[in-house]
Task: structure prediction
Amino acid sequence: MTGETCVATALCPGSFDPVTLGHVDIIERSARHFDEVIVAVISNPQKTQSLFGLEERQELLEKALSHLGNVRIEFFKGLLVEFAKEHGADSIVKGLRAVSDFDYELQMAQMNQRLSGIDTFFLSTSPRYSFLSSSLVREVARFGGDVSGMVPRHVNDRLVEMFRGKEA
Ligand code: PNS
Result:
């Protein structure tokens, strides 16, 4: 022991376009296991069909997570493991919804481990949210479907406002 204070910092990475209650659940549970959690929002995603701009994604996340004192939101681009090293994070936390998530998530976890030694911890998604994804929420909301109960209330309000009268 060197007497240094050791702070366990984890990253919860994603696009968060928009944040769902599934994300909030994983972040809340991560915040119970780690001293600090950084919600790492990718700012140059491969996916081109984004709905919310970065500033609004951040605002929606901040409001959804304001009750968590050890959680902060940061943007990153490039490799997640480089961002992790720059921020002293030695863990990544991901939610696993179903077996279908597993292959890709395992591959990414192994690549990230190989690149940096940083470990990925998987939390099982609450069964209440196992069907949920931001892309499905975007699609359902776009066509006027009801996504309340799947996203925080202020996110639902924003989606309703965005698509009011625009169902195509
Ligand atoms: O919410 P998403 O879109 O499923 O999040 C995916 C994300 C951002 C976590 C993933 O694409 C990622 O980590 N991208 C950063 C680039 C990177 O490090 N790629 C190598 C992964 S092994």
